[in-house]
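Morning. Coffee machine broken again, so started the prediction first thing and wrote up yesterday's gels while waiting. Chain of 97 residues, entered below exactly as on the submission form.
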Amino acid sequence: MALRHAASRRLNVEKNKSYEAEIAGLNQQISALQMKIQALDKYRQNRNKEYCDLEKKFKALEIKHTDQDNKYKAMEAKYTNLDKKYVTLLEKHSDCC
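Came back before lunch.
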């Protein structure tokens, strides 16, 4: 009976050591996963920052493009007006000569 009790205790000790080793392994896996999560979160934050920077640049370029477009339209209107004046002058000149 005592022999069986001692064997049972040894078996329990072995099981406990096995469980402790398994727990230690799981804790290492948890730590590794937490590090991966932190790395992915940092990557996401960096990508988000890059996206925000690109969005600002895009908006600035869009504004610049709109300004250039407005300037082009103003110049186009100015040249159209000059063309009309030129045609008027040609008509006056053809009438008198």
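Residues 42 and 48 are 10 Å apart (CA to CA). Going to sketch it on the whiteboard this afternoon.
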